Amino acid sequence: MLTSKGFSLVELLVATCIASALMVFASRHTAFFYSALLKVQHTVAIEAEFQALRHVITAHLERAGYVQQPISTQLAVSNANLPTVDIASFGTEALNSCFTFSYDQNDDGVITLTPTELFGFRLREDAIEYSVANRSCSQTHWQDLTDTNDVHISEFSITPLNASGWGVTYEIVVKGSSSVFYGIEASTTFVVEVANVQ
Question: Are 119 and 103 in contact (CB under 8 A)?
Fold first, then answer.
């Protein structure tokens, strides 16, 4: 039996089946490639977040202990009077996963007990937090710096590598994994030289 255009019904059914199979094939591959693209974009986003963490932590930590003073006063200060970076942990988190410090951010010659001159970073419940309002490592009410909906931080630590007359060198390690895609992991290890602490 022929259709009005000269094709048999069987040919029409075969062509329809082939077209349907091609559409299913194309849909599956499109979904696969879209999922792969999302995974790549999320990997890049986590790497960018770790680089931003590195930048923020370095920018603050390398100024730890800084107080605006004339150079003659700075040279006269003994190492015994230099401030320290206090290293601890919150609750049952890993050792050396919290550190607090201060510096003269407004260059008025003193470190005041205000939130703008007291800093800290710590690991708590798979997130990195920063200190606000003069909080110690053991206190609550810190603010999240990372979002556990995007990334789970599995390791955050600070280790003094070298102490000398000019200051202390610290190594900081951050490791984490994606909360969205299984198997995406990221890490960064960096060194911060702090000249104004003992």
Answer: yes
SS3 105: coil
Q: What is the pLDDT confidence band of residue 1, given thresholds at 50, 70 and 90?
A: very low
Q: What is the largest CA-CA distance in the chain?
A: 107
* CA 93, chain centre distance (Å): 17
Dump the DSSP string for 108-146. SSS--SSGGGEEEEEEETTEEEE--SS--TT-S--EESS
Can you give the C-alpha Rg of the chain in angstroms?
28
Residue 50 above 60 pLDDT? yes
Do the Cβ atoms of 120 and 130 come closer than 8 Å?
yes
Q: Where are the domains of the chain?
A: 44-194
- 134 neighbors 115 (Cβ within 8 angstroms): yes
Residue 90 has a CB neighbour count (10 Å cut-off) of: 19
Q: What are the two backbone dihedrals, phi and then psi, of residue 197, each rounded to the nearest 5 degrees? A: -130, 165
What is the pTM assigned to this prediction? Answer: 0.78
State phi, psi for 61 to the nearest 5 degrees: -65, -40
**CB neighbour class for 180 (10 Å; exposed up to 12, middle 13-18, buried from 19):** middle
Q: Of 122, 150, 120, which is closest to residue 132 (Cα–Cα)? A: 120
Strand partners for 54: none
Element at 21 (helix H, strand E): helix 9-61
